[in-house]
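In this section we walk through a basic example: taking a raw amino acid sequence and producing a predicted 3D structure, encoded as discrete structure tokens. The instruction is simple. Fold the sequence below.
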Amino acid sequence: MSAQPSPISDSDIPFGFVEEDGVHDQAWQEQFQADEATLRNRGFTSDFCGAWNSFWQLIAREYSQEIEARWNTPAAPLLESARLSYMSLMSAAVRADKSKARLRRFKCSAALLWCYRSGEVVPDGEPDDPERRRVQQNFARYWRDDNGWRACHRLQVTVGLPFFDRTRRTFKSNEKAAEAATYTDSLTDLLGEIVRRKNSYRGTSRVERFNRASREALALFRREAAHVCENREACQRPHLYAPEAKTDSPEIEGNSPKSNATKKQRATVINFEQAKSKILSGIEIATARAGAGQLTAAEAEELILLLAPLVEIAAGVRESSDGKAVNTSEDVTHPVSAESPEFVARGQNEKSDFPQQNEESAEVHADKNIRMETVQENVTTDDFLAAFVPDPCGEINFRAFAPKDASEGEERFAPCKKRVFRKALSCADDLQKSLPN
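The resulting token sequence is shown next.
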């Protein structure tokens, strides 16, 4: 690479000077000062860039995790789309400055906003030109998509602040006489407040002043938006942005409230073995922590509160069954196959599950009332009903029908219904006698 300076072209020389004047020497350029307008524009541009960067850095630090949790999407692409969309809105908002109103409100079509966003333009032609209308419709759709207003909407729902408030007519009222949406710009004034606060601070670096100004300006804007007014529609102050919104609006996402309301939530069923392994893992961790002397009193109290519902549920199930109910399989996520296994003949010396088929008494099973062919004499009516109604205060419905050979018209054979409690049935003899046999 040559060490000789590159030749100077005529386009590099300022107007009114020649190359011999030394216009490219640093000493020559420092002789002249920039005019006041140039210095003012430079300072404004530098301050705006500093406020813009500190504002978005604050948003990324404070709300990235909430954005990913709420919208199930990475935060970085959403924030980048929102930055570009907000810049387009701020550029289009200059048309509102003609009225010099304090409230920066303007109307702008979705197609034009996408022109600001993408740098593309709608082709010239008549309003009813098919090609022009096709491009406008595509641009309007692009603006309402993820890379346009939707990113701004999602960010504002997460933050809860109306950096740009958008009002529009309903679809039915806007079908024939289409009208562009109205936007209210609060972000430009917020950035201006950041610059003003930064200039009022002293004694710290420029970056620290911008970070402090961004935090304080955003907190001030939130307090202003959280004010309470009697008539929100007539109020001209900013309000919190969709505090009740959990998802995108139906117009943006295409989800109607009816479809969301009728959507059924699937019940979560966990395999018992998986639940037991997780509990055992937690017990091992707590035991190791206690053995190392690192388990604090607060952590012990928290463990007790966490395990209390589990102990209460297990104790309730054990008391309700009382060793008499039939214990079915706990694993409902892996049902038994409907296909019956192949029949295997029992050997001569093998024991049967049924005691009556063995010469000697077999082991008594927990479900003896079902597995044995004869019912034991000591099984009461309450014991039998406990297998179907574990709760003593549970309701039992009885229905009585006439026998097949009964003559019609007799009152004692008329069908009847009766509802009793299991506990009352076991205590009242007269109530048992009143029930049909």
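Looking at the output, two observations stand out. The chain has three domains: 36-258, 287-321, 366-434. The two ends are 113 Å apart (CA to CA). In the next section we compare this with other chains.
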